[in-house]
């Protein structure tokens, strides 16, 4: 009965849900999740009252059945005022009780569902708001799957517990307590006998349950491993095919599946043992108690009605003890889930969208002063060493150098995606750390190497640069980006869907969408990360002229892979091993015979 959930290989919630030990601290921590329920407390209270009423009416069943049995076996049932109650009257009372029970149950479900749906919505919202504001290093330190499971499976567990677990827990505890009180009222002798029989069985069952929980966790871990394989293969399906490793991957998946099945079988072997133990132990106990009861009835110390009541209450108690064992596991996962959710909600965020931030206007002067940098995930590697350079507003500079030299890192630091290890970056003479982050980023536009298009229309994708832009502005930007030509050739124009559910755009088209996006954003500072994959010369020309249009009157930093595109820039910085090794115009650098730039030029010339 304990930990039945999560035992099989259905892969339902719980696979990524390590449980926590039930301690006072974990309990108090977990309870903090209730702050999300506070706005709905009235509904919660009504639900709880209805739940209490429905539990109470359930507890009245055995009582009435006992009375019916007494009335049927000619033991008159007397009211406090001495009047006898007929069988019909008892049955009528029963009918009313059942009706009420139905109503209470309906109301309880309705109110608790509302509380759980609204609470869960609020938790998801809070988590999402948190996700998008977490700093970049957070996403490098944590796997995407682990982060998303906070908002999916962990929240799912909380939802279950608000809609089911909590109510069940309440019901079982009250049933247990009330049940014990009722059997004591019916017969103290028999109750004592029963209480001596059952607790030892329950204790044994709990020990058994703990073992099963451990095995169930192993099963879940194995299952998680198989899922990782599926995920990896699907994400890298091109690589799998290109390396003709379909069979290798299938083999890998199969052997992982075998492990899962083995673990599942083992845990279910114990579960089977557990169930038969419960049947034999628990029901054996019941038989023992019934036997004792029968002797009491024979001796005239109990009526048949009393016996009926006693038996039924005992079953209620048994069921609630068993139910509690199962709930124990659920409470543990709930606490675990809420702990992980709260942990994430406590993560420090980037200081974006501060209230009352003053809008800033930027000229676009940039100064890097002795910038040193290490990635937080790789503190042993100095990626940038003593980088110093300046760009006047409106100037264009290019960063060139071998792969891994640190070019992208230099521009990421301007966006404040990471904190510098030392040195500073000034924009218009002011340290970027002293700007409001949102205001600073608002003035920086980026055309990345790989354009990410969001699923949706072309309109939405261009408007990502300025979500409030009217159609005329979007079209104007698309025109300037040399994108309007192909967009208007689509039957649905701006409404054409792209991405997963829509058409696939070519590399050059995607870049021009990215350029249109940047044009719409109209930033003072522009970062162009040239695509490494080359386009055909027609598209190349279109993209290049769109870029030229975009760069006009803006401070531009170009991460260049093709040297042909940067002859006209004001300054070229040659980066190697995280340092600036040469700087100057194209003509100046080309003259250094043994210079890195001259060599790169030669190489590219030979290649073409
Ligand atoms: N997010 C990251 N976490 C840890 N290390 C990183 C990260 N991004 C880049 N690096 C490392 O930092 C160094 C510089 O990388 P960077 O991407 O800046 O080079 P690049 O000159 O832009 O290269 P490319 O031309 O290939 O894009 C490399 O050694 C790289 O492995």
Automatic annotation (TrEMBL):
A Pfam family this chain is assigned to: ABC_membrane
Keywords: ATP-binding, Membrane, Nucleotide-binding, Transmembrane, Transmembrane helix
Superkingdom of the source species: Bacteria
UniProt GO BP: oligopeptide export from mitochondrion
ATP-binding in keyword set: yes
Domain named ABC transmembrane type-1: residues: 45-333
TM annotation in the entry: 44-65, 85-111, 169-186, 192-209, 269-290
Record domain ABC transporter: where: 366-602
Record's GO cellular component terms: plasma membrane
Subcellular location field: Cell membrane
Gene Ontology MF terms: ABC-type oligopeptide transporter activity; ATP binding; ATP hydrolysis activity
Gene3D superfamilies (alphabetical): ABC transporter type 1, transmembrane domain (1.20.1560.10), P-loop containing nucleotide triphosphate hydrolases (3.40.50.300)
Principal subcellular localisation of the protein: membrane
UniProt entry tagged with the keyword Electron transport: no
Entry membrane topology: Multi-pass membrane protein
Protein known as: ATP-binding cassette domain-containing protein
Alphabetical list of SUPFAM superfamilies matching this protein: ABC transporter transmembrane region (SSF90123), P-loop containing nucleoside triphosphate hydrolases (SSF52540)
């Amino acid at each position: 009965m304990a930990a039945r959930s999560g035992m099989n290989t259905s892969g339902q919630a719980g696979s990524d849900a390590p449980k926590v030990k039930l301690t006072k601290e974990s309990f108090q921590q977990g309870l903090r999740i209730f702050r999300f329920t506070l706005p709905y407390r009235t509904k919660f209270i009504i639900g709880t009252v209805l739940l209490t009423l429905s539990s109470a009416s359930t507890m009245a069943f055995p009582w009435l059945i006992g009375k019916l049995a007494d009335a049927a076996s000619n033991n008159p049932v007397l009211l406090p005022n001495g009047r006898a109650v007929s069988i019909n009257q008892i049955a009528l009372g029963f009918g009313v009780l059942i009706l009420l029970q139905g109503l209470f149950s309906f109301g309880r479900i309705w109110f608790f569902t509302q509380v759980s749906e609204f609470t869960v919505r609020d938790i998801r919202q809070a988590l999402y708001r948190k996700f998008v504001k977490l700093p970049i290093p957070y996403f490098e330190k944590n796997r995407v799957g682990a982060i998303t499971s906070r908002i999916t499976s962990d929240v799912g567990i909380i939802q279950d517990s608000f809609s089911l677990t909590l109510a069940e827990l309440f019901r079982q505890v009250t049933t247990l307590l009330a049940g014990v009180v009722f059997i004591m009222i019916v017969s103290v002798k028999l109750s004592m006998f029963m209480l001596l029989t059952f607790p030892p069985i329950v204790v044994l069952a709990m020990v058994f349950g703990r073992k099963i929980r451990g095995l169930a966790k192993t099963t879940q871990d194995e299952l998680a491993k198989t899922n990782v394989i599926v995920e990896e293969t699907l994400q890298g399906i091109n690589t799998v095919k290109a390396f003709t490793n379909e069979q290798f991957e299938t083999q890998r998946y199969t052997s992982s599946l075998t492990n899962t099945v083995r673990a599942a079988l083992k845990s279910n072997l114990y579960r089977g043992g557990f169930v038969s133990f419960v049947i034999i132990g628990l029901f054996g106990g019941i038989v023992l108690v019934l036997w004792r009861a029968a002797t009491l009835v024979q001796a005239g110390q109990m009526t048949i009605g009393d016996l009926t009541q006693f038996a039924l209450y005992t079953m209620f108690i048994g069921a609630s003890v068993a139910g509690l064992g199962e709930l124990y596991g659920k409470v543990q996962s709930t606490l675990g889930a809420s702990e992980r959710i709260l942990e994430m909600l406590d993560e420090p965020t980037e200081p974006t969208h501060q209230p009352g931030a003053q809008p800033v206007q930027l000229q676009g002067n940039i100064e890097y002063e002795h910038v040193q940098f290490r990635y937080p995930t790789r503190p042993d590697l100095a990626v940038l060493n003593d980088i110093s350079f300046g760009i006047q507003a409106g100037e264009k500079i290019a960063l060139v150098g071998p792969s891994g030299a640190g070019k992208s890192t230099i521009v990421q630091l301007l966006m404040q995606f990471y904190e510098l290890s030392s040195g500073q970056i000034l924009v218009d003479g002011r340290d970027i750390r002293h700007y409001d982050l949102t205001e600073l980023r608002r003035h920086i536009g980026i055309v990345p190497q790989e354009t990410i298009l969001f699923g949706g229309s072309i309109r939405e994708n261009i408007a990502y640069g300025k979500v409030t832009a009217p159609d005329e502005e979007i079209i104007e930007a698309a025109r300037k980006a040399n994108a309007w030509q192909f967009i208007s050739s689509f039957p649905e124009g701006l409404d054409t869907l792209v991405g997963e559910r829509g058409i696939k755009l070519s590399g050059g088209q995607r870049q021009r969408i990215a350029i249109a996006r940047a044009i719409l954003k109209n930033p003072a500072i522009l970062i162009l990360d040239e695509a490494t994959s080359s386009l055909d010369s027609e598209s190349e020309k279109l993209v290049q002229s769109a870029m030229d249009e975009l760069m006009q009157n803006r401070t531009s930093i170009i991460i260049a892979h093709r040297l042909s595109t940067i002859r006209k820039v004001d300054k070229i910085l040659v980066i190697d091993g995280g340092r600036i090794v040469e700087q100057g115009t194209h003509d100046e650098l080309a003259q250094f015979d043994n210079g890195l730039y001259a060599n790169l030029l030669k190489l590219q010339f030979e290649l073409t």
